[in-house]
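Fresh eyes needed here. I'd like your take on this protein's tokenised backbone:
***
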Amino acid sequence: MSPQPTPAVSVVIRCCNEADSLGPVLDSLFRQRGPAFEVLALDSGSQDGTIGVLAGYPVRVEQLPGGFSYGKALNHGAALAGAALVVYLSAHCRPTTPDWLAALLAPFADPDVVATFGRQVPVPGVNPIEGITTSRIFPPEGPAKVLLSNANAALRRTAVLAKPFDEEIPTAEDHVWACCVRKPERIVYVPGAVVSHSHPMMLSDWKQRFYKDGLAAEYTRHRLDIRLPWDEPDASVRGVVFGRAGAFVRLAATLARRREIRALAYLPSYAIARTFWFTRGVRDGARLYGGGESRPTP
């Protein structure tokens, strides 16, 4: 039996209880035109049928050993990849065209390009609150408002192995990695490589996200001397409330103009999570990473 050819690209998909979204993502992935690729699904103990969904596709399934962190999953995926280019795709990010992969990889013709990342567009009707932010961060023409997003990105495997992602930071590991890229190396935003991406409007998701944002802000402040884009000069509850009051008012006005009545009803929960749980994350992060003895709140 002849050996299988080495794939040009390894697509790494992080999975944890993604059965509801994974099928459409894989369907779109296997319709891609362009270079040969392998798909590596890196699972973190899914209990919802994710493994069964993966069994219906030509996918290599591996388990992430030990505890999860985004950086750890990204590094482990690169270590297992068989190709020189590693594409990271979240299990709920569906490529919208059959040319998504080719567009994402095109800039690597320049040897100075070490990473690319594509545009994300909101899924209509799922989460208008976050959809407004997503549309602003990932515009149809560059530049993007972020340095890198590994939900829809490609990196040279050698670059990840030489400079691994931080495995301790709770979130924003992609931003931290991008901050360490030095000229002539560069990262390219590819607005033509589009995925649809939205999270549901749920208080539990918002609480977890903004709490991790607060932890990460303190981690980078104390460990790395890096300021994250959402870091607050005054992270007290009062400071965050008054600092973001104008943003919440503008967001409410935009939702009202678009007649997003359901989203307006969810806006107080979003504002509370973004204010109080971020502040709580900052408080716990200052104690944890600044020399105190406390542990993050579960």
